[in-house]
């Protein structure tokens, strides 16, 4: 959500703030409220919409898809390389 807000602030025209028809930044799938016992179910349900969001994001023009915020968003972190075994 914070990343999406950064993108909309940095690219207001592409985010459709002046003219919604001009929006090219994809919409982030909405939040889903869940109980602790439903974490996995919610993650599985959100997998496809989040994947579609990421694919749409990297297909944007290079001045957006290769901006610092996008590069940081997709940057590999140590935990990504050695995820928890649970």
TrEMBL record:
Q: Name one GO biological process term.
A: superoxide anion generation
Please give the Gene Ontology molecular function terms for this protein: phosphatidylinositol binding; superoxide-generating NADPH oxidase activator activity
* Cellular component terms per the entry's GO annotation: cytoplasm
UniProt cross-references to InterPro entries, sorted A to Z: NADPH_Oxidase/PX-Domain, PX_dom, PX_dom_sf
> Which Gene3D superfamilies does the UniProt record give?
Phox-like domain
Tell me the ranges covered by the PX domain, including all copies: 1-81
Protein's recorded name = SPD2B protein
Give the species this sequence originates from. Answer: Vireo altiloquus
Q: Which gene encodes it?
A: Sh3pxd2b_0
């Amino acid at each position: 959500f914070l990343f999406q807000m950064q993108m909309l602030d940095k690219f207001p025209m592409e985010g459709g703030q002046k003219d919604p028809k001009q929006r090219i930044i994809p919409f982030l799938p909405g939040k889903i409220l869940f109980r602790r016992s439903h974490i996995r179910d919610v993650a599985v349900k959100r997998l496809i919409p989040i994947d579609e969001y990421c694919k749409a994001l990297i297909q944007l023009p290079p001045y957006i898809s290769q901006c610092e915020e996008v590069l940081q968003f997709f940057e590999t972190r140590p935990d990504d390389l050695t995820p928890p075994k649970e």
